[in-house]
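Ticket 4471: requesting a sanity check on a complex prediction with glutathione. Repro inputs:
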Amino acid sequence: MLKLFHVPGTRSTRIIWLCEELGVPLEIETVSFSVDFRMSPEWLTKNPVGKVPVLEDGELSMFESGAMVQYILDRYGDGRLQPIVGSPAHAIYMQWSWFGEATFARPLGEIVNHRRNFDPEIPAVVEEMANRALLCVKAVNDAVDGKAFLLGEFTAADIMVGYCLMLCNRLIPSHSYENANQYWTRLCQMNGAVKAFSDLNQGPLSR
Ligand SMILES: N[C@@H](CCC(=O)N[C@@H](CS)C(=O)NCC(=O)O)C(=O)O
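Returned structure tokens:
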């Protein structure tokens, strides 16, 4: 059985969301987000850079959320929630999945990290990162114009990007990208999202 080491509101929500949509059983162990825990020798054997999440499947142990999503789809998905591998649609699916972690999550993570490490925060730094994140919201806004989801049908790319929209809404509360707002509302109605975000207020961003 898959086992997820989870912190509410972090990227581990992607795995909970995906498994719920697929109906794949998942054992969830909530762990501490403290630096002491994450930098402990025991945790560093699971995640060598002291971050969350970690996923285990028997002997297999993984520490990148996007790779976990793809592994679960390929091993347990029976072709669901991703286009046929090698098709142009799959290329676009990968594009949005990678965008979710490599481009969109990055400035948002920098805001979180900056606020954790600088008190008071430096407004110019937060503003720069917020502007970068808002460019990503605009890209999503344009992509879902006239479509329910990024590829038309719901795929795991929506989970990768949906996590960023959740974070964005908490960190940069108001923006006027209407398609993106409606897309986010649609995502929030999915069973997987309801489950994945049910413990948000117990997470590190609830402060
Ligand atoms: N690319 C990694 C990023 C992991 C990551 O940055 N996790 C955050 C929580 S969502 C974390 O542990 N941050 C602590 C830190 O960077 O100090 C993934 O997708 O798993």
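Notes from triage: The chain has a mean pLDDT of 96. Leaving this open until the requester confirms.
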